[in-house]
Amino acid sequence: MEESGKWDWKISPVQKWYDFNWQEFVRYRGLIRRFVKRDLLSNYHQTIMGSFWLVLQPLLTTLVFVLIFGNIMKISTDGFPSLLFYLTGNIIWGFFSDCFNGSMYSFRHNLHIFKKIYFPRLIIPVSVVMTHAFRLLIQFVLLFAISFYYLWTGDQVELTWRIFLFPVLFLLTACFAMGLGLLVSTFSVKYKDLENFMQYFLRLYMFATPIVYPSSIVSEKYKVLFWLNPLTPLVETFKSGFSEQTELNYPALGIAVLVIAVIFTSGVVLFKKRELKVMDYL
Predict the structure, then answer these.
(1) Taking burial as the number of CB atoms within 10 A of a residue's CB, which of 35, 97, 158, 178 is the most buried?
(2) Which residue range is the domain that position 206 belongs to?
(3) Using CA atoms, how far apart are residues 10 and 228, in angstroms rounded to an integer?
(4) Mean pLDDT, to the nearest integer, of 73-98?
(5) d(Cα 273, Cα 189) in Å, to the nearest integer?
C-alpha cells in the first residue's frame, strides 16, 4: 500500500550518533523565544531595580576586584586602567559561568516540562545561551561606554582591529560553556556529586583563567599549562581589543578552537543520545 503522506515522527530501534534534525529548531523557534522571555522576566520579577541589575551586578563585582586586586594586592594590569581591565575579564567570565550553569542544570530544572510534552530537549540549553547573550549585549554597551571615556581622557586605551573578533570570541565561549555543561548535565543525573564538584571546580577555574591578573605575570614554568586552558586565549584576545600592547597567541587560540569544537560536539552528541534515558534517573 502506497504511503498517503509524510510522517512527522519516525521510531527506530537504533539512533545514530549523528542523527540530528536541525530543522526542528526552525519549527520550534517560537518556543525558544518563549523560554528566553521567561528566563529574562523571571530573574528580575518583583525586584526594585529590575533589569538595571544587568549592568549593576558586573559593575559592583568589578569595583570589588579593583579594590582587592588592584588597590590592596597591587596586581599589575599591564598599563590598563583598572576598571576597564577587570570589567573586560568579569564580563566574559560571567557569560561563560552563566551559560555553563544553565546548561548543566538543563535536565534537573526542566523536569516538569520534559515529562509533559515533547520538544527537542536541546532547545533548553540553546535558549539559556541566547538569554545570557542578550544580557551580554547590554553589558557590552556599558563596557564600550567606559572604554570611550578612557579614550576621551587620554588614558592608555585604544580600540584595535581585534574588536571585530568579539562576536567570534563570544560564540566560542558560548560553545565551550554549553558543550561542557551538557557533558556534566548528562552524567550528573546519575552521579549527583558531580554537580557539587563542578561548582567547586568553577571557583578554582576562574583563578586559572586571566580574569583578575594579566598573562604577563605567569611564570615561564607554567606558561604551557596556562595557555592550554581554552578560555585563556579567548580572554586575552578580548582584552587585546582595547590595547595594541597585548599580543595575540595564535597557536594557543588555534588549539582552543579545536578543543572547544571537540567538547561542544561531544556534549551535543551525548546529550542527544541520553536525553530519553536520563528521565529514568530523575
Answers:
(1) 178
(2) 30-36+49-280
(3) 43
(4) 90
(5) 14
pLDDT of 167 strictly over 60: yes
Residue 73 lies in a domain: yes
N-terminal to C-terminal alpha carbon distance within the chain? 42
Confidence (pTM): 0.86
In a domain, 95, yes or no: yes
Q: Identify whether 23 is part of a domain.
A: no
